[in-house]
Amino acid sequence: MDSPSRPDGDARTRRGPDAGGLVLLLLPALAVVWVLFGGGLALGLVQALGYLPVAGLGELSWGHFARVLTDPDFIRSLLLTFYIAGTSTSIAAGISILTALLLASLVERSRVIHFMFQVPLTVPHLVIAVAAVFMLAPAGLFSRAAVALGWIQTSADFPLLINDTWGVGIILTYVWKEVPFITMMILAVLRQSGNALLDVGRTLKASPWQRFRYITLPTIFPAVGAASLIVFAYTFGAFEVPFLLGRTYPMTLPVWAYKNYSDIDLLARPEGIATGIVIALVVMLAVVLAQMLTKAARKRGVIL
Amino acid sequence: MGDLRIEKLAIDYGARAVIQGLDLDVHDGEMVSLLGPSGAGKTTILKAVAGLLEPSGGNILIDGHSVRGVPPEKRNAVMVFQKPLLFPFMNVSQNIGFGLRMRGQAGGETARHVDHILALTRLEGLSRRKVHELSGGQQQRVALARALVLKPSILLLDEPLSNLDATLRQRMRELIQTIQSETRMTMLFVTHDQSEALMLSHRVALLLDGRLRQVGAPRQLFHHPADPEVARFFGGKNFFQGHIQNGMYHSDFGVFAVGPQDGNGHLRTATIRPEDIRIVPRRAESSGGLAGRIVKTNFEGSATRIVVACSAGELVVLTSQDGFLPGQEVEVTVPPDKLRLFPDA
Ligand SMILES: Nc1ncnc2c1ncn2[C@@H]1O[C@H](COP(=O)(O)OP(=O)(O)OP(=O)(O)O)[C@@H](O)[C@H]1O
Ligand SMILES: [Mg+2]
């Protein structure tokens, strides 16, 4: 029945390249990425180790790393960065879980809601940071609105949300930006396997709270975890938002690295790069952890 | 105690009525099959009984009490789904013990119950396995065990065997049958497979197009279908049109002595099962049967299905004899006592 001499038919039925073939096809692109990223990192490392002939530095040493790591300002920056990334990620994750549950139960297939959630995903952080300045600053939109509504006397009574000690402006900006991302990740998992398992839970006599605690949470845990780690990695290494909305002291690590790197004193440069490498390490660790969670989820049959 | 009564049940999906005026009783300790083709509404009925779906009309009573408005977690009915739907983040024994833990049962007692069910469902040794390390049949048994361990009044099974291969399905049927007779648990078993329904259940309820067409013992449905459609569902192929005259049924395929019947002169449909027709090669002297010629033969293993063209039309015959060939001249005999006359349309 089957005629072997039908090349067009064969081509149509041929399956896609296997994993090995795929790697081969992607090799050129991968090479560019690795050379640029890995090469940049290696160059940076060499400079951080003190090889900067222009500045008269010629010997390799861990001295710059040591100096950076023991600098009390570095420690303060590190803690501040962890605080901002950790807090904004936790708040965003919490809000995202609630939002995703609400959306999953309310609208099964609402395109409008979907669209509304995709918009913030595409807006650059810089734009949001600028918008945050306009809205949250002491003379900003919210402050004036509060005065107009009679909630506060003058705009001087408006709480300091920008360039403030607790990084409220930065955290709010990150939360606003990251909630849609984490929410979408959770929603995807809930759509895949959520409702059927909840029906199982109901017929096995689990109360609404028990279904949330013992079915929904474990179901979405890998998605929440992976998405949060990615967001954490991003906020940990992001520069523009704390640069615009943060205080001049202490700075977050990326801002500190940038300041050092672009200092007119070329001697500060290796320290800037050393800081950058510390950031890169934390970011990579978070990404690796996210990858592990995704893998674990795939084992259970959930594709993130 | 495990008594289910469904009264005038009606269920719609939006504007589409899927189930209408359905009545069904399942008595304590009974195994009833809900049999019907794909899309007949079987899952829909089970979900309504389990409480996962709100009916638009009628009533459901479990152990004599109406469960209208009672959420599934407060009903004494547990459903096993078409797919295993195990919790992927729990191992086998955690899956099985889930319902007991939700009930707040103590750890030691839960473990004891789980061990008992593991043995009952032949899953010993797999208790620590991750769900994705199980075969399809094992997963299905875990799903069954997870429901059985709760000892519900009513166990609702939604085609739990449809994704298994033939051998495994047969073994699982026997397992379910053994468990049912050991525990005397009331079960409503959904299937689209007639032989499964006939083999497993005390009574079969046949659902066609959202209505119950016949409820009764397996033999009754098989040998005494209520109408031609029921007969067709059970593999009926040969339908005659004719009328009754003084205990004789006059049809195109001949005249048959069917004994005293009501409705002299009325048009009646009759059927004969393929395996009840006798077939022999045609010889010089006729044996008194219908003459015909073989159109097609299909070897089915234990039997051969033969289509015979007679002057009045085609008949399908199922015989255990071998050696019939297409084109062959044969004689077929329809035993009058095997003829099933349907009531007046
Ligand atoms: N959520 C739904 N919304 C609308 N229609 C539905 C929905 N679920 C099922 N139906 C329709 O209701 C009818 C009965 O579906 P049901 O799932 O009960 O059939 P079934 O007898 O269980 O079939 P199968 O043997 O294929 O599982 C079908 O025609 C189906 O298309
Ligand atoms: Mg179904």
Which characteristics define this entry?
heterodimer; A: 304 residues; mainly alpha; MetI-like fold; globular; B: 345 residues; alpha+beta; Rossmann fold; OB fold (Dihydrolipoamide Acetyltransferase, E2P); 2 domains; six-stranded mixed sheet; 8 helices; 20 strands; 24% helix; 34% strand; binds adenosine-5'-triphosphate; binds magnesium ion
Give me the secondary-structure topology.
The complex is a heterodimer of chains A (304) and B (345).
Chain A (H helix, E strand, L loop, with lengths): L6 H7 L5 H30 L14 H8 L1 H35 L4 H12 L2 H12 L4 H8 L19 H36 L4 H30 L2 H6 L7 H9 L7 H31 L5
Helix pairs in contact in A: 2-12, 3-12, 4-8, 4-9, 5-8, 6-8, 8-9, 9-12, 11-12
Chain B lengths: L3 E10 L2 E11 L4 E5 L6 H9 L6 E6 L2 E2 L10 E4 L11 H11 L4 H14 L15 H13 L5 E5 L7 H18 L2 E6 L2 H7 L2 E6 L2 E6 L1 H6 L4 H6 L4 E8 L2 E4 L2 E4 L9 E6 L5 E4 L8 E10 L4 E7 L2 E7 L9 E5 L6 E2 L4
Parallel strand pairs in B: 3-8, 3-9, 6-7, 7-8
Antiparallel strand pairs in B: 1-2, 1-4, 4-5, 9-10, 11-12, 11-14, 12-13, 14-20, 15-19, 16-17, 16-19, 17-18
Magnesium ion binds next to helix 1 of chain B.
Can you tell me about this structure?
The complex is a heterodimer of chains A (304) and B (345). Chain A has 304 residues and is mostly helical. Chain A has a single domain, classed as MetI-like fold (Orthogonal Bundle). Chain A contains twelve helices and no strands. Chain A has helices at residues 7-13, 19-48, 63-70, 72-106, 111-122, 125-136, 141-148, 168-203, 208-237, 240-245, 253-261, 269-299. The model of chain A is unreliable at 1-17 (pLDDT under 50). Chain B is an alpha+beta fold. Chain B folds into two domains: 4-231, Rossmann fold (3-Layer(aba) Sandwich), CATH 3.40.50.300; 236-341, RNA polymerase II/Efflux pump adaptor protein, barrel-sandwich hybrid domain (OB fold (Dihydrolipoamide Acetyltransferase, E2P), Beta Barrel), CATH 2.40.50. Helices cover 24% and strands 34% of the residues of chain B. Chain B has helices at 42-50, 92-102, 107-120, 136-148, 166-183, 194-200, 218-223, 228-233; strands spanning 4-13, 16-26, 31-35, 57-62, 65-66, 77-80, 154-158, 186-191, 203-208, 211-216, 238-245, 248-251, 254-257, 267-272, 278-281, 290-299, 304-310, 313-319, 329-333, 340-341. The longest helix of chain B has 18 residues, at 166-183. Chain B starts with a strand and ends with a strand. The relative contact order of chain B is 0.12. The model of chain B has no long low-confidence stretch (mean pLDDT 90). The A-B interface holds A 193, 196-197, 199-207, 210, 214-215, 218-219, 221, 299-302 and B 50-52, 71-74, 77-79, 81, 83, 85, 87-89, 98-99, 101-103, 131-132, 146-147, 150. Bound molecules: adenosine-5'-triphosphate (ATP) and magnesium ion. The site of magnesium ion (MG) has 5 residues of chain B, from helix 1.
